[in-house]
Write a structure and sequence with these properties.
3 strands; 11 helices
Length: 226
């Protein structure tokens, strides 16, 4: 029952939930109803009087249900209930949200570190700019990004860039064609690229040998005729 009540309140738009918090709901490791109750408290401020009756009336819940959520959020270290003097010097219980903000800070730091690590690992854009000797355009950036998002290994992309520049070509259309042909051959790793090159070189070598043998045969035939 308490879950459906909270979700209904949420749907009615009676509380403000920042998009950032919605995006990181799963990172908080809370059940949906616990998250919504936490957002209700979040809307009340950083620290405020612990008033279960008010919470009960605002959310149309029983005091037992309210206290159940307070206990869960306290145990999971999202909130603290502390006794301190109010503006009139009288001791009252307050809900402190500092622990919740600390968790948000840690999530933010982890996210920034993850993005930084991902960026350092993904140097494909820098590699291509260095090979081309110029800054890539926004359209080229999107093309390269599309390669990555389609699942093409960045090491394979780098090999395709090397292949293109070795052949004196510095444009993404040519590289895209290389990647397309490699894809048809099942090339997915650098090892696959090397195997494909060796196979290609051996094929070319055999073709050259066959041409030389034919020349020898033709030369001997004319020599015998003389």
């Amino acid at each position: 029952m308490k879950s459906s009540k909270l979700i209904e309140i949420f749907k009615q738009g009676n509380m403000v939930i920042p998009l950032y918090l919605l995006q990181h709901f799963k990172d908080l490791k809370l059940k949906l109803e616990e998250f919504i109750f936490l957002m209700y408290l979040y809307n009340l401020g950083d620290n405020f009087v612990f008033d279960p009756t008010k919470f009960s009336n605002d959310l149309n819940m029983t005091l037992v249900e309210v206290m159940s959520f307070i206990e869960v959020l306290t145990d999971k270290k999202f909130i603290r209930v502390e006794s301190k003097k109010n503006d009139k010097g009288i001791m009252e219980e307050f809900i402190i949200m500092d622990d919740f903000y600390s968790k948000l800070t840690l999530i933010t730091i982890d996210e920034v570190n993850k993005e930084t690590n991902d960026a350092s690992k993904s140097d494909i854009f820098e590699v291509i700019q260095k090979e081309f000797g110029r800054t890539i355009s926004p359209i080229e950036y999107e093309i390269i990004k599309a390669w990555i998002e389609s699942g093409i290994n960045e090491s394979v992309i780098k090999e395709a860039v090397k292949e293109a520049t070795f052949n004196g070509v510095s444009n993404l259309r040519y590289i895209d064609k290389i990647l397309y042909e490699w894809g048809k051959l099942g090339v997915k790793t650098v090892e696959d690229v090397e195997k494909n090159r060796m196979k290609h070189n051996n094929t070319n070598k055999n073709q050259v040998n066959e041409e030389v043998d034919m020349d020898v045969i033709e030369w001997n035939w004319f020599d015998d005729d003389e």
